[in-house]
Amino acid sequence: MDKNNFLKMIAAGRDSALLRFTLGNLYLEENDAAAAAEHLRRAVELDTGYAAAWKQLGKALLALGRDDDARAAWDEGIAAASAKGSVQAVKEMQVQLRRLDKKRQPS
């Protein structure tokens, strides 16, 4: 399915966190971080416990140069993943945070 079909579903009132997550990932694959962030933000608004959407939102925000917002998204994602016992998701977002910390350290 292409993005247009997903966008039509949203327009028809069939919005969901999974739909927005899928769209966000498609936009990330196309290097459209702004559109990705918009859809991923909506995904986590619809389901605040959606750890995978938080993780991808952080990636989109980082690609936009919004490091502090990316950090906040990953922090939220870690909390969501921890609450659900999603150890792997927690680890993945902790890795992203460590990379962000290294990026900030002066050489």
Number of helices: 6
| Helix/sheet category | mainly alpha
Q: Helix coverage percent of residues? A: over 70%
Mean pLDDT: 95
Based on CA inertia axes, which overall geometry fits? globular
Main beta sheet: none
Point out poorly predicted stretches. Answer: none
Oligomeric state of this protein: single chain
| Helix and strand pattern | HHHHHH
According to DSSP, the number of beta strands is 0
Strand content: under 5%
Question: Could you characterize what this model shows?
Answer:
- With 107 residues, this protein is mostly helical.
- Helix 2 (17-29) runs antiparallel to helix 3 (33-46).
- Helices cover 79% and strands 0% of the residues.
- The protein is built from 6 helices and no strands.
- The radius of gyration is 14 Å and the shape is globular.
- The longest helix has 18 residues, at 67-84.
- The mean pLDDT is 95.
Task: Please specify the SSE layout and strand pairing.
Blueprint: H1 3-11, H2 17-29, H3 33-46, H4 51-63, H5 67-84, H6 87-104
Helix pairs in contact: 1-2, 2-3, 2-4, 3-4, 4-5, 4-6, 5-6
